[in-house]
Amino acid sequence: MDETLDKPVAASGFRSGLASVAADVETALDRLLPRPTGHHAVLAEAMRYAALGGGKRLRPFLVIETARMLGGDADNALTVGCALECLHVYSLVHDDLPCMDDDDLRRGKPTVHKVYGDAMAVLAGDGLLTHAFELLATDAAHPDPAVRARLVLELARAGGASGMIGGQVVDITVAEAARDTALITQLQAMKTGALIRFAMKAGALIADAQPQDIAALDRYADALGLAFQIQDDVLDVEGDMETVGKAVGKDADLGKATFVSLLGLDGAKDKARSLGETARAALAPYGEKAQTLLGTVDFVLERRH
Amino acid sequence: MDETLDKPVAASGFRSGLASVAADVETALDRLLPRPTGHHAVLAEAMRYAALGGGKRLRPFLVIETARMLGGDADNALTVGCALECLHVYSLVHDDLPCMDDDDLRRGKPTVHKVYGDAMAVLAGDGLLTHAFELLATDAAHPDPAVRARLVLELARAGGASGMIGGQVVDITVAEAARDTALITQLQAMKTGALIRFAMKAGALIADAQPQDIAALDRYADALGLAFQIQDDVLDVEGDMETVGKAVGKDADLGKATFVSLLGLDGAKDKARSLGETARAALAPYGEKAQTLLGTVDFVLERRH
Fold first, then answer.
1. What is the mean pLDDT of residues B182-211?
2. Contacts of A120 in chain B (CB under 8 A)
3. How many whole angstroms separate alpha carbon A87 and alpha carbon A156?
């Protein structure tokens, strides 16, 4: 394919674009998160510890780049991206708890409960989840209250019992032996895919996009989200402690059913590449405007951590 | 006072009214909560176990009666009341966790984590919190999206880091010895008062009320919420296991600073009565229409569990 020739340059441009958006998100989160004050100052400190200073910010990036592609307001997209990131971070804080995945490291630093204790980690997570909806309900998310209400509805569905939380429940309750490719595909569509899908839909809603835009972006999001998860499984096998920044090979050590254990390493890579093609095809109608979102597909497939 | 004469009748009428609304809330919650389905069915079961089959439903009652007093739509108020109850119930589920208050009983039955385990209790709480915002964002909460967005904003603030969660943080982090009346008043205004205040404001927003209505209802809510908490402390000393349905005298056993320990039993009762007068005075402009909310003051001061 012709694109292969200029991929290194495009990828480099993409990575600096992603880093630039991540810096914007960091600054905006610092501004939008509660400041430590009063007798409950430690709560805001724990929320900030969890949300600031790390992360690729891929979800806000997708909100922002989708809104940009469709002509939406950049400030609105940044606010909505921060709301989505708050929700994503809360899920990490709760998933890391001793009664859940019991992880000591996240993004290369001690998890919230290791630093602030279990009770504060529960409450900081609750605070970040609540703050996500607060941000979506402010004028800064969108001047039209109908869009704000819709964003709240969509995020609650994506992050709720039939979406992300439901996916986590499947993940912690269904025995590894009972998992086949269909089940882990469904699990990941709920646990990871729902927020990716929300990111694209949010960008489209901010830009007052048409239903056919939302349908195309849903196809892109579903393929990208699953490719992302498969690549996670691939990295879990291929990665090493230094570049990933969390315990590697953990899934395999636990005899966990992953896309790699079910499809084999090559099978998983093929599946991810095929999903990448599906994602790219969904963006065909947008031509040049879709350049960044096309770059996101390459980034997801080629990332090393 | 003249009201004293017919108080037994009024109180009886109030209690049947409260029970009737509680039954409506129970039916509506059963309809509005997710149904157990798929591999994550246990999540919806745990959410339903937590939310159904108990509770006075005082918060939804306040939404519904405030909306009724001001001419708001009853179905809207019921939906918003259910959203508020979901948020209240999530806070109970998380507060009961072993890493927080470590309670085994709630509303006379085993707590969610005792039945479903700690991880599912965290997730069921997360699900209920998320569902609260989903309900507020649906048409059933209000036909005007501007009102829906405002309801989301107000609930997020009331339930967030500067409201309920912040109050819980103060409660679990500030040493008993460091607590004076001013601190526990502030703590309760955040932990309990913020949701009571939201209940009244939500009823007013549903009814498209004026700013002076909201100001009057704020005064009522602040006084009622504090009186409710003081009465809780009084009941903790005076109650017995059978009528309260949870461990009694626990606060005193732990050497906990309460309104009773700080003001004495009589002092606490006087304070509650005085707050009752403040709450009643705030409703003076509404005359006969305020009968039920006036009855709520009597109910809060006279309740035995």
1. 96
2. 169
3. 10
Where b means 16+ CB within 10 Å and e means fewer, A196-211 reads bbbbbbbbbbbbebee
Domain extent, residue B221, equals: 3-302
| CB-based contact A43 B166, cutoff 8 Å | yes
Residue B186 tokens read as 């502030």
Can you tell me the distance from the alpha carbon of B202 to that of B182, in angstroms, rounded to the nearest whole number?
A: 27
Chain B residues touching residue A49 (CB < 8 angstroms) = none
Q: What CA–CA distance (Å, rounded) separates B8 from B11?
A: 5
Count of CB atoms situated within 10 Å of the CB of A219: 16
Q: How far apart are the first and last CA of chain B?
A: 26
Q: What is the DSSP string of chain A?
A: -GGGTTHHHHHHHHHHHHHHHHHHHHHHHHHHSPPP-GGGHHHHHHHHHHHSS----HHHHHHHHHHHHHT--HHHHHHHHHHHHHHHHHHHHHHTSTTTT--SEETTEE-HHHHH-HHHHHHHHHHHHHHHHHHHHSTTT-SSHHHHHHHHHHHHHHHSTTTHHHHHHHHHHS-GGG--HHHHHHHHIIIIIHHHHHHHHHHHHHTT--HHHHHHHHHHHHHHHHHHHHHHHHHHHH--HHHH-S-SSHHHHTT---HHHHHHHHHHHHHHHHHHHHHHHHTGGGGGGGHHHHHHHHHHHH---
Given a contact cutoff of 8 angstroms between Cβ atoms, the answer to whether B146 and A145 are in contact is yes
ipTM, 2 dp: 0.93
Best of A88, A94, A99 to mutate (most B CBs within 10 Å, chain B) = A99
Cβ A185 vs Cβ A257: under 8 Å: no
pLDDT in tens, A194-241: 999 999 999 999 999 999 999 999 999 999 999 999 999 999 888 754
Count of domains for chain A: 1
CA distance B7 to chain A (A): 41
Residue of A207, A179, A198, A187 lying closest to A263 (CA atoms): A179
Find chain B residues with C-beta within 8 A of A38's C-beta: 166, 170
Instruction: Give the long-range contacts of residues B287-294, CB within 8 A, separation 24 or more.
Output: B289/B69, B290/B69, B291/B10, B292/B14, B292/B17, B292/B65, B292/B68, B292/B69, B293/B62, B293/B65, B293/B66, B293/B69, B293/B220
Do residue B160 and residue A134 have CB atoms under 8 angstroms apart? yes
Per-residue pLDDT tens digits for B224-277: 999 999 999 999 888 754 555 555 556 655 678 999 999 999 999 999 999 999
Q: Characterize the bridge pairing of strands B105-106 and B109-110.
A: antiparallel
The CATH number that applies at residue A68 is 1.10.600.10
Distance CA B277, CA B289 (A): 18
Nearest chain A Cα distance for residue B93, angstroms = 11
Q: Do B126 and A165 touch (CB under 8 A)?
A: yes
For all residues of chain B together, what is the average pLDDT?
A: 92
Q: At what angle do helices B145-159 and B194-206 cross, to 10 degrees?
A: 170
Do residues B177 and B198 touch, judged by C-beta distance below 8 A? no
Query: Are B181 and B263 within 8 A, CB to CB?
Result: yes
Q: Is B200 within 8 Å of B59 (Cβ atoms)?
A: no
